[in-house]
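Hey,

Quick one before I head out. I ran the complex with iron/sulfur cluster overnight. Inputs first:
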Amino acid sequence: YLFEMANIRDQDSWVHMNEPDAATEKAKDLVRMAIAKAQYLKPLKPGQLSVNHAALIIGGGLAGITAALALADQGFASHIVEKEGQLGGNYRKLHYTLEGLDTREHLTRLLDRVRKSELITAYTGAEIVKIEGFIGNYKTTIRMKSDERQFEHGVVIVATGAYELKTEEYLCGRNAGVVTQRDLEEMIAGEDERVKRAGSVVMIQCVGSRSPERPYCSRYCCSEAMKNALKLKEMDPGRDVTILYRDIRTFGLKEDFYKKARELNVKFIRYDEDRKPEVRADGTGLVLEVFDPILNEAVELKADLLALSVGTMPNPGNEEIGKMLKVPTNQDGFFLEAHVKLRPVDFATDGVFMCGMAHAPKLSEEAITQANAAVSRACTILTKDFIEAEGKTAYVNKSRCAACGLCEVNCPFRAIAVDLNEGCAVVNTVLCKGCGVCTASCRMNAVDLNGFNNEEVMAQIAAFAM
Ligand SMILES: Cc1cc2nc3c(=O)[nH]c(=O)nc-3n(C[C@H](O)[C@H](O)[C@H](O)COP(=O)(O)OP(=O)(O)OC[C@H]3O[C@@H](n4cnc5c(N)ncnc54)[C@H](O)[C@@H]3O)c2cc1C
Ligand code: SF4
Ligand code: SF4
């Protein structure tokens, strides 16, 4: 911290490459200012804090289970808190993936490993009451029935998932012939008579997704439709299967399954959002009317079964969990990562990570990949015995502080808060990133920043004016 740089390359020669004389003058200013500040630099000693080596995983779906197992493989303990009576989440309701993985058998294997692991404690039927602390040192209280328990941990992985949207569109819930893709999968796997008898099956894509209320794509439903369509054709190649779609988003290598569906004579008809298909029941079955843009006319289809590719809705509990952990959700209600490319599984709050459908709709294999990524990031903390805090942090002049709380409201890292016992604001140097927002917002001039205090900054300004 006894270092001050006149950054002539980045702040001068590159940005003023076409004004050499002015750039030389600016370089002199930068050097003078750096020297003026350097005379006030003081050695700073970054604080150290110990790290608890366990993790809290909120949500015991596929992402949460995968994260716990990956942590255990690296020797770290975890506490999975699952609000339902059993682990598995949405994955429990799948039977197979588009690529043919038997998901029931896969989940059984994963749960068996969870049960046998001495490093994983799973609390089912449990809710989080409160989470206190910060990176390396959290204490969480959970409630199971009337029983409250507490445990300590160093990091948090949020894997609270998402839900299938409830819809009443296209007679869903009002006609037994209208089911969701997930129901259809269940019926195919259970060899339901209605599926065996169905000579014509129609599917409608993007139900409840990519609309003004939910502008996002639910991502798994095109693949889900393709997997069910292929199964239906496998069972009875002669039956009619028609998919009404807006765009087919079988991304990556899943495109091969779309091609295969076309080869097997699955029919595809495109529709527009403002010209949706219409469905009615005519006593003998279902009748759909849809405008076919290739024929340039409305066509009528008879269906024994209508399967809706119903989209995802975010977990309504995300907001509450977000408040407890001080992490944000986006405009759609999913958790928001710190940076879409550079920190895709981190939150801006240190020590908190996310994975799975808590972040956005995802296929199961993507949830697994993201859970492993979150564990890799969490291990950058769990593998340490101590974390070194920033040296350039804010500090409060107690005699000036009026305990007004303005700094507390403005700090983006929740690193400063009024302590009523102390009668002034107190900085948590572990959380403080030295951004200086509190120093700028304090009207009493009571907060200052190590490495950028008033004395140093005023010396720079005076040197610039010389
Ligand atoms: C309708 C539907 C169809 C799908 N079809 C396919 C498919 O065909 N192929 C495919 O690969 N993928 C499919 N998926 C996606 C796949 O199911 C998920 O990617 C996968 O299950 C990973 O889920 P997750 O663990 O992130 O979330 P979830 O499965 O939602 O698990 C989250 C868990 O967290 C728990 N929880 C939530 N809030 C809290 C809280 N506050 N405290 C404690 N616990 C909490 C929930 O009870 C749940 O058990 C589908 C998903 C849906 C919804
Ligand atoms: S995955 Fe396909 S059906 Fe689902 S919302 Fe996206 S485009 Fe629509
Ligand atoms: S803004 Fe200033 S006066 Fe108000 S609580 Fe923070 S440090 Fe104290």
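Residues 396, 401-407, 418, 424-425, 441-442, 444, 446-447 surround iron/sulfur cluster (ligand 3) (CB under 6 Å).

Talk tomorrow,
K.
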